[in-house]
Amino acid sequence: MEPRKIEIMDTTLRDGEQTSGVSFSVSEKLTIAKLLLEELNVDRIEIASARVSDGEMQAVKKITEWATQQNLIEKIEVLTFVDEGKSIDWMMVSGAKVQNLLTKGSLNHLVHQLKKTPEQHFSDIKKIIELAQKNHIKTNVYLEDWSNGMQNSKEYVFEYLTFLASQPIERILLPDTLGILTPSETFQFISEVREQFPNIHFDFHGHNDYDLGVANVMEAVKAGVNGLHLTINGMGERAGNAPMASTIAVINDFLKDVKITVKETALHKVSKLVENFSGFRIPVNKPIVGANVFTQTAGIHADGDNKNNLYFNDLMPERFGRKRKYALGKTSGKANIQKNLQDLGISLNDDELKKVTQRIIELGDKKEVVSQEDLPYIISDVLDSEEIERRVVVENYVLGHAKGLKPSTTLMLKVEGVLYEAHAQGDGQFDAFMNALKKLYKNHSKKIIPNLIDYAVRIPPGSNSDALCETIITWKSETKEFITRGLDSDQTVSAIKATEKMLNII
Q1: Do 377 and 394 belong to one domain?
Q2: What are the tens digits of pLDDT across the range 387-429?
Q3: Quick one: 13 and 92 in the same domain?
Q4: Residue 270 and residue 273: Cα distance in Å, rounded?
Q5: 67 shares its domain with 193
Q6: Which of the following is catalytic: 56, 144, 219, 500?
Q7: pTM of the predicted model, to two decimals?
């Protein structure tokens, strides 16, 4: 039996833009529209509400111009209103050819907001549909607050659906406007509607107020719905809409009797672009598109993955254009580190691996996040430090920097087991540290501190982590020139570590 086709309508540019604080520019809307239709391959997109603003009109014009050229104009939809044809006039100017007409799907909304009878409302709707048809505009009809209508005024809903069944419309759109449905109610209500009107195309539009958006969508599909309304990253009013990425994964993995055209591999790319344009950040643990959802943290999980992929499920990251990662931190253990070393093409012996693991644990205890890009720096620092005998130890220091005063350092140095202390000021914290160090060596040592001739700070290229920076200092004495490196999350501390290595070399 051929799987049943489910239409996916994306409403990020309309309902998603109703997220508090979000407003897309004209060029951003056009870019998102192109990605949704050409790369993500959704069936339809709802791009705006009619009569909102001049900016909205400009955006719709740009999108409809492009869509017309690409023969995609019938995939572009606009939310309209029962407003005596003003929305239709707006659409004529904008170039849009499909309206999603917002009407009342509950007696509660009809009586208290419009203060009209069902007959009056139906008459107004009929006129709008006729006007749209006359101007070659196709009509889909939203039953706003439909879920409440099914719970509390079912007779009205079915009276309304009977009326719509006689009208020249394309689809009926059933929104859970306030996100009040449970999965069992969603299945029951969609089933009732489908049974009464088997030949009408119904879309389900779920909201996520109780975090049941995906579950409700799943039940709507099981009950026989023809289309779904989703948004990228679950954007939308209040708690948002049913999210695109999770819904697509659920359909593909758990609802085998239906088919969709959405390309999983494009989900992450589109989600990140919408995140950048909207400023609406994706939670790191958001399924499919979150930064951490394909990252194993516990060392036992990485070990299990090495032993027949014990901690894998069907949500393989490659499906979504992503890659599995193994976090580096206090719980990661040797297995996580080995996974990252494999990716980098680096091999360590057991003793070296143990020392590197210990350093990563120490960073984790300081609540630092270590990335794969940081790993070569840590290895270099650990192994380099092991080669240097620590006869001189920077035991303690206090760095001070206050407005109106020169930076200062109080330094305690242990040399061959003997403690020395000095205080100095400088043009910066590290300069003050060096001045204190020079004072100690002048008073207590015959050795001369080499000249600092170059000082460079860098972070691992490509790293998104703020955990580590590496300070590389070039020193010049009377007989030689050499380099030492220090690694720490704090720039000044990493420079002090590099300086300590220098003191043990001279």
Answers
A1: no
A2: 667 889 999 999 998 888 899 999 999 998 899 999 999 999 9
A3: yes
A4: 5
A5: yes
A6: 144
A7: 0.73
